[in-house]
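Hey, resending since the last one bounced:
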Amino acid sequence: MRNRRLILDAALVVFSRDGYGGATLDSIATGAGLSKPNLLYYFDSKTAIYVTLLSQLLETWLDPLIELDPDGDPVEELLGYVRHKLDMSLELPDESKLFAGEMLQGAPRIMNHLQDELKPLFDRKCAIIQNWIDAGKLAPVDPPHLIFSIWAATQHYADFGAQVSVLLGGENPSVRAAAHLEQMFRKVLQPQTP
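The structure tokens again:
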């Protein structure tokens, strides 16, 4: 288990930095402090390592969406989701970059997961949001595009971290970003009172 964890940790750094095409088993083995033959004892290919990483990543990154409570206060549930996604992006930028890289390639290694697992979850959560809208508990928004907007607004801080750092003069964006996103999404989500 320890060596598998070393390999996966090293691979995350290599894949998020170099992309799937640029990553090599040699660079992953070096990062893990193992020989290439030792690495191949635990994983039979670069693809096996990559798919394992992506599978673990998806499980972690989807947890906050899974936790969206249909019985909770809709605005607070969604703002909590925004905060959780932002925290994850700031704390786990390599994971976000790894996923973004796979998406930019057309998701060739995880398309089945997107279709079989993410799509049903996404549809269920969109239905919950639509139910909240229909009950007058949320402003009328487009549920799929609301979720896309949350993903885009939060993961930008990970996927474009170098740009964010330069433009903010090296300032840690966490406090201002959280306040801004809460203000923005609260205005979008708050139902109008008659």
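The chain is about 80% helix and 0% strand.

Sorry for the duplicate.
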